Amino acid sequence: MSLSRRLLLGASSAAVFAPVRRGSAEPAIDPTVRIGVLTDMSGPYRDVTGPTGVACARQAVAEFTAAHPDTKVEMMVADHQNKADVAVGIVREWFDRSGVDAIVGVDSSAVALACTSVCAEKDKVHLNTGAGTSALTGKSCNANTVHWTLDTWNLPHSTATAVVKSGGDSWFFITADYTFGHIFQHDTTEFIEAAGGKVVGSAQFPFPDTTDFSAYLLQAQASGAKVAGFAASGANFVNLVKQAREFGLDKTMTLAAIACFITDVQAMGLPVAQGLILTENFYWDLNDRSRAFMQRIKPALPAGVFPNMDHAGSYAATLHYLKTVQAMGVAQAKASGRNAVAAMKRMPTDDDCFGPGLIREDGRKIHPAYLFRVKTPEESHYPGDVYTLLATTPADQAFRPMSEGGCPLVHA
């Protein structure tokens, strides 16, 4: 099985040599920055992450090398198949034999938690732009990891609090039975209870093999809860909402999406997705900068595809890493992933997807969160016009306070 395919971007540059000392030349410094995009290219998260995330990371490399043609960047891509052991094997191969300096994407919480320790062991950079688990900046944090786009504190904090305050004070969860789903349900429950609501029950479905959700939907319907909370993502989530509409669950319950993306909305269509309340940290039609990014990435995407927040994270994290490499110098950045991440934290972030921001001491990338309602078909006036902005959570309130995470890097 081929573990990766190479996507070579940027112009070649002359080899850079270390100074001559003691009358003999030092070995040449490898001038190539190597980035590995590790993602789901064939499974249930393919549309949420996958090829569009790869295209967005490639866009960042293309923009950077156009501005800095003397810096050579090589990008590799591999499918982790949502299996931690497969992912770890790929990452070790990249680090030990292919000279990869940083990995990007690493969606799936179980995959991310397995890979983050390898990055710390090998002193490489882990730019996580797809996994949900907030443990990456909590008890499992390390000095080699940046968690960019979203997490299981960020999305529930925005969505659950708003739904409870609007009257949805009793919930029944339908949850994907693996790390991502469990953490999302746990964190969402805390926000429901903090806002004065309660969880009356839950059902877990096997991931990723479930296609018939009827038994779980009937449990939700019989619970008497006002809100059906879906702690799932990707193809499972899309099928779950479709079947919930078929069962008429939306007639008696609010359907709350804990982790929903524009790619999911497109897959369902507005007649099915309309009315869903959700949080995304990026929307292509949010402002002039996000629309400018959309125009640049559009030629690289299939017709009708609009990037979601995970995709945008792959672009933004890759670009900030490369800016940091340029500021440090390639040799110094390649020498230590810990030093490169420390430099990324010192440098303010700024890109067209998320605007200005920062990376905290615990590795958490900070930016605003946006609460949206999915438009009805009648409200949508052009392709990709799917969200109505309901509220914005400021960047300094959008993610878990460092004092609550338990990250050993955080100093009081």
Task: Explain what the structure shows.
The protein has 412 residues and is of the alpha/beta class. It has 2 domains: 5-150 and 287-366, Response regulator (Rossmann fold), CATH 3.40.50.2300; 154-283 and 368-397, 3-Layer(aba) Sandwich (Rossmann fold). The chain has helices at residues 50-67, 84-98, 109-122, 154-165, 179-194, 214-223, 234-246, 262-268, 270-273, 288-297, 309-328, 330-335, 337-346, 402-405; strands at 5-9, 16-17, 28-29, 32-39, 72-79, 102-105, 125-128, 145-147, 170-176, 198-205, 227-231, 254-257, 277-280, 349-351, 355-359, 365-366, 369-374, 387-393. The strands form 5 sheets. A 6-stranded mixed beta sheet has the order 1-5-4-6-7-8, with helices on both faces. A 4-stranded parallel beta sheet has the order 10-9-11-12, sandwiched between helices. Helix 7 (234-246) links the parallel strand 11 and strand 12. It is globular, with a radius of gyration of 21 Å. The protein starts with a strand and ends in a 7-residue tail after the last helix. The relative contact order is 0.14. Residues 1-26 have low confidence and may be disordered.
